[in-house]
Amino acid sequence: MTLSHKDLRIDLACSLRWADKLGLNEGVSNHFSVAVPDEKGTVLGSRFLVNPCGWHWSEITASSLVLCDENGNVLEGTNEVERSAFIIHSQIHLAAPHAKVIMHTHMPYATSLSMLENTRLEMCGQSALMFDQRIAYDGTYLGLAFDQAEGSRMASKLGNHSIMFMANHGVTVTGQNTAEAFTDLYYLERASMFQVIASSTGKTLRTIPKEIQKNTREQFSKDRPKMAVRYFSALKRMLDEMDPGYRS
User: Fold this and answer.
1) Each residue of 75-100: b (16+ CB within 10 Å) or e?
2) What pTM was computed for the model?
3) Nearest C-alpha neighbor of 50 from the set 24, 97, 89, 15
4) Which of 28, 55, 78, 110 is spaced 20 to 30 A from 65 at the CA atom?
5) Would you say residue 11 lies in a domain?
6) Residues 53-83: tens digit of each pLDDT
7) Containing domain of residue 71, as a range?
């Protein structure tokens, strides 16, 4: 189902509000974006909504989101787009058509894994198996993403994957829609948390046989979209009760 421009704004605002409530944010940094179809109804990655520069995620509303084009021009809204946000999100939207929604965070546990040498999300827990063979790892950190070349490099590292761990930096999660991307974001942080806690005991992680991994991966591929709809619908219902102002 194709969402209206208004509904795209509402869903993105909801996801930012909930990311704040779940402690996935860092100051006024990090950004979520969603590609917006052009006038002909085609998503080309050349226009996207993104949270505005300097706004805390807890105060984001549907109308405060900025619509910009691939050159950084603001098409709708009175706010600005932060430079590194534009560089990262614009290049990924353009290079990866499957990345209709992009969520980049420095969420604690996943970022912790990105800071460890030769560390991967181990397929040792059920939540981790949601991401089996879906993760790309960028092993190079080159500082703040302030030039297009760095954004292009990041996009090339993501490739056809939907998740990317970024060395010394954080993670980027992409999806076909906001519900799927946010659900992945939430469960990725949970899986990372379980691994960090289990590893902190100093004991060996319990492995899962390859055949079971494969079967579970196939199960998740079928169930994940339905799970995302259920989870995100619940989040919207709760936020409508707690703070419906996000829709404005």
Assistant:
1) eebebbbbebbbbbbbbbbbbbeebb
2) 0.96
3) 89
4) 110
5) yes
6) 999 999 999 999 999 998 889 999 888 999 9
7) 5-241
